[in-house]
Amino acid sequence: MSRLFLILLTLPLLVIAEEVVLDLTYNPPLDFNYCKNNPPECKPLPSIVPKFVMVEQTTSKQWVTFFTFQLLDVYSTSKALKYDCIKEINPLYTEHPNDARLVATKTLLLAPALLYNDGYKKVTPEELDSTNMLYMFVVANNFRLLNEAKDTCNKIR
Fold it and tell me: Tens digits of per-residue pLDDT, 66-87?
């Protein structure tokens, strides 16, 4: 009986609701210069997020590759210089530098540059990748010259 009472009670409300038409459309005029005409309303809101710069860091793999190429450069240069037809063309060395001078010069040039003012933290991944690519070709050339020297030259050391 209570259901019948509720249905009878709501029937007049449904009839009234059908007669009232609500217009919910919103058609404002399109103004392409709204912000130009109303600058205070178009001011950007202040940001609550502090501004900061994200800097990509070099990876351990890149540094291991870099130091591996440095060691391979010294090793291949040292082995190749033991043949009479190979001469060092780097102006920092003599034509036939000894192994200690190769290691010392590379260490004395790289260590201060990387350690001073945390220089190794400022090297970008792109710079280190470019340096590694360069040394890849240097080491490959050194081993190519070493293999040619083994076939055609006399060992002097």
Answer: 999 999 999 999 999 899 888 8
